[in-house]
Q: What sequence folds into this?
């Protein structure tokens, strides 16, 4: 039996519960830290008259369950880009409360639980562009079922409505159900779907592409994804010791780089993965089959490594490092709208 990890604190790294095994959910310590951050950020922003609203998974959890989604690892608020400097000026007040303000550039401002513990709340910046609010986040960072992430009509935050999160009343876009359906998670936003952490082929799948055959693959993908993450954590000392954390988001590259995971599936793994597809009824099925094949190849390498596996992983690390550097050097794509 695996021992339950000790609760994390401000002085220790946060729990990497997404890598603790199949089905593992956020422990009580991390929930307490996130709610503490939520209370503080809401009081801070409201006290200084800064417009803000709960967003993304935090908003979804409040509307759907009245609580944080059990597998979420952070909290998301939205603020207007025009208020960003006012928020940055609050760094001393944030520090006096024991938290850390981290500037994420033109994308977000982060309030972190501590210097060591990276539990955090992100204040995503939204800039006015006519009748739209636009974010400089990449539209490539879309996870399964998401409708989009870079723009929505400003009218949704002109008059906010309350939602309840763990007994707390917080401001939200209005009308909230239309916002979640049309600008966040699509028609099935009330149906819980655990994210596929190991999604690793830069495949963006929007809500409009999720056919019944594609949706039928999601439980298997989630289960195999958790298996891969657990194996990576068990096999890598850097990950096991928390030096390089496993991802809290599907598109995180650091752990894939350190683990030297495959860059793609082999024809053999693709052929095997297609047997799990009920039908080829749209582009999403092919994308998900490719991801499943990639995951199965990575799992196989961990469970039955070959003599050349260490060399292959070294080459992949170099390839991923080159990709990361290239992305950093390329000019940021201008937001739509």
A:
């Amino acid at each position: 039996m695996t021992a339950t990890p000790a609760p994390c604190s401000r002085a220790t790294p946060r729990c990497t519960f997404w890598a603790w095994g199949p089905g593992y959910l956020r422990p009580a310590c991390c929930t307490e830290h996130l709610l503490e951050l939520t209370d503080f950020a809401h009081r801070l922003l409201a006290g200084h008259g800064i417009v803000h609203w709960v967003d993304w998974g935090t908003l979804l959890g409040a509307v759907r369950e009245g609580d944080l989604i059990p597998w979420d690892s952070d909290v998301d608020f939205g603020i207007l880009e025009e208020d960003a400097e006012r928020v940055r000026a609050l760094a001393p007040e944030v520090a006096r409360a024991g938290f850390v303000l981290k500037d994420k550039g033109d994308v977000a401002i982060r309030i972190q639980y501590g210097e060591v513990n990276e539990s955090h709340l992100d204040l995503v910046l939204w800039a006015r562009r006519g009748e739209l609010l636009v974010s400089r986040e990449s539209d490539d960072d879309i996870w399964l079922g998401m409708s989009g992430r870079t723009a929505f009509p400003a009218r949704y935050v002109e008059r906010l409505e309350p939602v309840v999160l763990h007994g707390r009343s917080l401001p939200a876009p209005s009308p909230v159900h239309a916002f979640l359906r049309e600008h966040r998670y699509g028609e099935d936003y009330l149906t819980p779907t655990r994210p596929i952490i190991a999604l690793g082929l830069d495949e963006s799948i929007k809500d409009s592409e999720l056919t019944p055959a594609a949706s039928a693959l999601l439980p298997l993908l989630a289960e195999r994804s958790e298996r891969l993450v657990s194996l990576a954590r068990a096999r890598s000392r850097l990950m096991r010791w928390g030096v390089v954390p496993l991802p809290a988001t599907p598109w995180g590259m650091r752990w894939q780089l350190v683990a030297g995971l495959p860059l793609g599936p082999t024809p053999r793994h693709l052929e095997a993965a297609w047997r799990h597809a009920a039908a080829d009824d749209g582009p999403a099925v092919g994308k998900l089959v490719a991801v499943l094949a990639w995951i199965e190849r990575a799992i196989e390498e961990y469970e039955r490594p070959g003599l050349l596996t260490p060399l292959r992983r070294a080459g992949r690390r170099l390839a991923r490092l080159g990709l990361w550097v290239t992305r950093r050097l390329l000019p940021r794509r201008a937001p739509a709208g």
Residues 238-252, 331-337 have pLDDT under 50 and may be disordered.
